[in-house]
Amino acid sequence: MKRFWTDVAVVPEAGGFDIQLDARPVRTPGRAPLTLPTAALAQAVADEWRGVGETIDPRAMPLTGLSNAAIDRIAPDTARFAEGLARYGDSDLLCYRADHPLELQLRQQAAWDPLLDWARMRYDAPLAVTTGVMHCVQAPQTLARLGAAVAARSPFELAALSPLVTITGSLVAALALLEGAASADDIWAAANLDEDWQVEHWGEDELARQARATRKADFQAGVRLLSLL
Asked: Could you say which DSSP state residue 33 is in?
């Protein structure tokens, strides 16, 4: 779609803040008003619309995309969406360790054990750890507690959590980031620990580098959305 507007404004409304283009409200792809829950997020989304060139590039508007998802996809059935994210707890990246070499095992322990310890203390949710890729069965009560932590989140929080969980492969890491128990840089490093090991020893090809850059951009969009709520 080509740019058709000149002015972008943030307008307070009941329950949030609307974005207007030349005094006309922006709507989501589902035709709902693009109403944002905080002034900070509304200003950031408005800046994305101000930055549009001759045509809209959705990749350059990640906050708008995540906000659309919160309104159109998540809010109509928040519980179902939360349940889908919570399933990652049953196959959390942090629970699957290398069986060799020792240096990699030690790196995983140093980066991942503190996050699992945090989940155990924060939610009373101990997670079992295994080596290899065979499924490791987790205690039902642990999965229920992690699921409850996800279900308690708002549609916009869940929209931010979604790329964090799916890109890292770790529900625990995403929750730790959401609650301020770990920094975005630490979570990114933990999630990419195995890949970084491979790069150190065998190098990185251009396609892998590009794919990683795309994942990081999506990860950073989720992090920024959380910071604006």
From this structure: B
